[in-house]
């Protein structure tokens, strides 16, 4: 996995987010707050993004590529649309990861540490939760 530092003021990523339907309700300030929390993560084909049973708080937004959800080594779903969200369940229910997610080709994600949402950007919680529950 390759990761960028902070995305604040990254206009290329900002434009990409604006083009994704799930981010249309976000204001400019909401998107900037998300970028301050986020990291671009690039995964190669067959690289594990999330491992079943692990504890972590990262939520991922698919920008390009695709990822397979594996439960007991069986594919149960594929994420392949820009804006697809995964990893949010462990934030919502506080449980370890319930499945493994593996990139099926080179995949670019916006990763956000969900534990920072409540602690740093309380004013952006409504827009963020709206996106997760949509």
Overview of the molecule:
- The chain has helices at 11-18, 28-37, 89-93, 114-120, 125-133; strands at 2-3, 38-43, 48-50, 58-64, 67-71, 74-79, 85-86, 100-103, 107-113.
- It is α+β, with helices and mostly antiparallel strands and 134 residues long.
- The chain has a single domain (2-133), classed as Sandwich (Jelly Rolls).
- The chain has a 5-stranded antiparallel sheet with strand order 1-2-9-4-7. The protein has a 4-stranded antiparallel sheet with strand order 3-8-5-6, with no helix packed on it.
- The longest helix has 10 residues, at 28-37.
- The termini are far apart.
CATH superfamily: Jelly Rolls
Element pattern in H and E = EHHEEEEEEHEEHH
SSE class: alpha+beta
Task: Report strand %.
Answer: 25-35%
Radius of gyration, CA atoms, in whole angstroms: 14 Å
| CATH domain class name | Mainly Beta
What's the short version?
Helix content is 29%, strand content 31%.
List the helices and strands and how they pair.
Elements: E1 2-3, H1 11-18, H2 28-37, E2 38-43, E3 48-50, E4 58-64, E5 67-71, E6 74-79, E7 85-86, H3 89-93, E8 100-103, E9 107-113, H4 114-120, H5 125-133
Antiparallel strand pairs: 1-2, 2-9, 3-8, 4-7, 4-9, 5-6, 5-8
List keywords for this structure.
134 residues, alpha+beta, Jelly Rolls, 5 helices
């Amino acid at each position: 996995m390759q990761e960028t530092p902070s995305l604040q003021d990254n206009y290329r990523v900002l434009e990409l987010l604006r083009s994704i339907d799930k981010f249309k309700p976000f204001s400019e300030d909401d998107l900037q707050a998300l970028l301050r929390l986020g990291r671009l993560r690039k995964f190669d084909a067959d690289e594990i993004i999330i491992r079943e049973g692990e504890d972590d708080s990262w939520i991922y937004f698919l920008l390009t590529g695709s990822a397979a959800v594996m439960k007991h080594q069986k594919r149960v779903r594929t994420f392949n649309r820009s804006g697809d969200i995964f990893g949010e369940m462990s934030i919502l229910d506080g449980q370890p990861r319930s499945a493994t997610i593996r990139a099926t080709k080179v995949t670019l994600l916006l990763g956000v540490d969900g534990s920072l949402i409540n602690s740093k950007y309380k004013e952006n919680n409504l827009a963020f939760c709206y996106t997760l529950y949509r």
